[in-house]
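Please fill in the sequence for the structure shown.

STRUCTURE ENCODING:
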């Protein structure tokens, strides 16, 4: 995959969310920089890395959308994964050196469904050494490349659904819907061990992040073929990041106090949690607020009204 050269161009104030279909072979940051260049955007960030070998949904936040990107990091994710059975690698994917090769017995497939059922719901995972998790300020994958292994604490994640899509004599394809922080490579390795033959990820594609789905994705090639106006029309509004959140309407009088950082009472507010704030004058998204114990809504992150 050709990385678009990053040339110096005049930067624009671009606001919105792009559902990028990250190609295989690029890091998430390389894909981000290519998209940022195509839009001549002054500010952009992505919402959760994909490995270079992985493809699929990488939401890119432009401009003011970056203020709300953290909420997408907390969201559930959906994946398609292809697992090669009978082989364990150092990295848990196709890039790592082969550590162990084991026969794939018929009993592996006989117990496949019962094994998969054991990985549904709340499970415990030990993060892999080849991950971006940090130890004393250094990413684990950098230590792993130096041959250093450190002890990692197990963490609980939730696998909402885990389905077998199809299989061959030496591989299985799975559909996974899971909580944030779930390591798919670790999940595949653990399934392989439970089957007794080992496994590694040979293909991974992210198909969903929160309410964003694969049918809205655009490739870098597709974006390159569009003109600037057409590209801008591909951007989703800022509050699409928070589509599942309740919203409250804010009058001009209430907005006056909110933009001065004051918590106020708003009609029909929920008892607790976070809300989207919508300006009554033009139905513009204003930002997000949090319900305090006394029922007032405190502004947390706001954008400038147009």
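FILLED IN BY: designer on duty
SEQUENCE:
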């Amino acid at each position: 995959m050709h990385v678009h050269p990053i040339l110096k161009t005049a930067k624009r104030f671009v606001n919105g969310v792009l559902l990028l279909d990250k190609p295989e072979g690029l890091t998430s940051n390389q894909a981000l920089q290519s998209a940022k260049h195509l839009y001549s955007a002054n500010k952009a960030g992505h919402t959760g890395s994909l490995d270079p070998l992985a493809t699929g949904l990488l939401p890119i936040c432009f401009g003011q959308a970056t203020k709300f990107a953290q909420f997408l990091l907390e969201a559930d994710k959906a994946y398609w994964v292809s697992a090669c059975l009978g082989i364990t690698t150092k990295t848990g994917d196709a890039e790592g050196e082969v550590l162990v090769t084991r026969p794939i017995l018929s009993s592996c497939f006989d117990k496949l469904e019962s094994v998969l059922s054991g990985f549904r719901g709340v499970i415990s995972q030990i993060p892999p050494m080849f991950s971006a998790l940090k130890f004393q300020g250094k990413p684990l994958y950098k230590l792993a490349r130096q041959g250093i292994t450190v002890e990692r604490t197990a963490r609980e994640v939730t696998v909402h659904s885990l389905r077998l899509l199809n299989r061959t004599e030496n591989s299985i394809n799975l559909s996974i819907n899971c909580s944030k922080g779930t390591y798919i490579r670790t999940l595949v390795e653990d399934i392989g061990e439970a089957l007794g033959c080992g496994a590694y990820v040979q293909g991974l594609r992210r198909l969903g992040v929160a309410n964003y789905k694969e049918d809205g994705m655009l490739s870098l090639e597709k974006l390159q073929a569009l003109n600037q106006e057409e590209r801008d029309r591909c951007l989703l509004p800022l509050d699409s990041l928070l589509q599942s959140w309740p919203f409250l309407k804010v009058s001009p009088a209430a907005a006056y106090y909110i933009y001065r950082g004051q918590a106020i009472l708003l009609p029909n507010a929920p008892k607790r949690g976070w809300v989207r704030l919508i300006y009554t004058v033009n139905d513009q998204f204003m930002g997000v607020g949090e319900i305090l114990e006394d029922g007032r809504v405190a502004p947390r992150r706001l954008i400038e009204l147009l």
